[in-house]
From TrEMBL:
<feature type="binding site">
    <location>
        <position position="38"/>
    </location>
    <ligand>
        <name>Zn(2+)</name>
    </ligand>
</feature>
<comment type="similarity">
    <text>Belongs to the beta-class carbonic anhydrase family.</text>
</comment>
<dbReference type="InterPro" id="IPR036874">
    <property type="entry name" value="Carbonic_anhydrase_sf"/>
</dbReference>
<feature type="binding site">
    <location>
        <position position="40"/>
    </location>
    <ligand>
        <name>Zn(2+)</name>
    </ligand>
</feature>
<feature type="binding site">
    <location>
        <position position="96"/>
    </location>
    <ligand>
        <name>Zn(2+)</name>
    </ligand>
</feature>
<protein>
    <recommendedName>
        <fullName>carbonic anhydrase</fullName>
        <ecNumber>4.2.1.1</ecNumber>
    </recommendedName>
</protein>
<feature type="binding site">
    <location>
        <position position="99"/>
    </location>
    <ligand>
        <name>Zn(2+)</name>
    </ligand>
</feature>
<dbReference type="Pfam" id="PF00484">
    <property type="entry name" value="Pro_CA"/>
</dbReference>
<keyword id="KW-0479">Metal-binding</keyword>
<dbReference type="GO" id="GO:0008270">
    <property type="term" value="F:zinc ion binding"/>
</dbReference>
<keyword id="KW-0862">Zinc</keyword>
<dbReference type="InterPro" id="IPR001765">
    <property type="entry name" value="Carbonic_anhydrase"/>
</dbReference>
<dbReference type="GO" id="GO:0004089">
    <property type="term" value="F:carbonate dehydratase activity"/>
</dbReference>
């Protein structure tokens, strides 16, 4: 049985035995928060447990490195949807120590693409189209700076309401210990007072 068949076989039993009932909740986050975090496998169960979150408490957006790179990219769009359509009123960016995006070498990644069958011509076409493939694949050198940068992109977004605080944290992927990088309440108060 391949992996997909294993998943489908398990799922059939999961539904038949109504195991889903333990996870029933609504689409609106009970704690009115949206979290952007890394897709690292160590955080799948650890992060919610370390933050005392249950199913339905928050919206969680995951990507490689918990990075918000573009003010009008998919991550920021998801944050804005969570705020305007799903009643989230706080944002937390949570990076983690020992992240695979730390010091990621885009040239090495491109070499792996070629080794796996992506043609040099395809790579060249993408690079000549005006897209910086190396910049797109680049990670970061320092997780704290990366979290601060992502917080700044979100906080300063022209479409984010000024009353939404944006926090930044780093989680340890083994213990779940959280280190506060940016406390967003004070900045949110400053922003709100400037608009009055």
């Amino acid at each position: 049985m391949n992996r997909l068949e294993q998943i489908l076989d398990f799922n059939k039993k999961f539904v038949e035995e109504k195991q889903y009932e333990a996870y029933l909740t609504g689409k609106f986050p009970d704690k009115k928060m949206v979290i952007v975090t890394c897709m690292d496998t160590r955080l799948t169960e650890l992060l919610p447990k370390a933050l005392n979150l249950r199913n339905g408490d928050v919206k969680i957006i995951k990507n490689a490195g918990a990075i918000v790179t573009q003010p009008f990219g998919n991550i920021m769009r998801s944050i804005l949807v969570a705020v305007y359509e799903l009643n989230a009123d706080e944002v937390i960016i949570i990076g983690h120590y020992e992240c695979g995006m730390t010091g990621m070498n885009p040239e090495r990644t491109v070499n792996k693409m070629v080794e796996r069958g992506v043609s040099e011509q395809t790579i060249s076409t993408i690079q000549n189209s005006g897209m910086s493939l190396m910049r797109w694949l680049r990670g970061f050198d320092n997780v704290k700076e990366s979290v601060e940068n992502s917080v700044n992109i979100v906080r300063n977004h022209p479409l984010l309401p000024v009353d939404v605080p944006v926090h930044g944290m780093i989680i340890h992927p083994e213990t779940g210990q959280l280190d506060l990088v940016v406390e967003g309440y004070e900045e949110q108060k400053k922003r709100a007072s400037l608009t009055k």
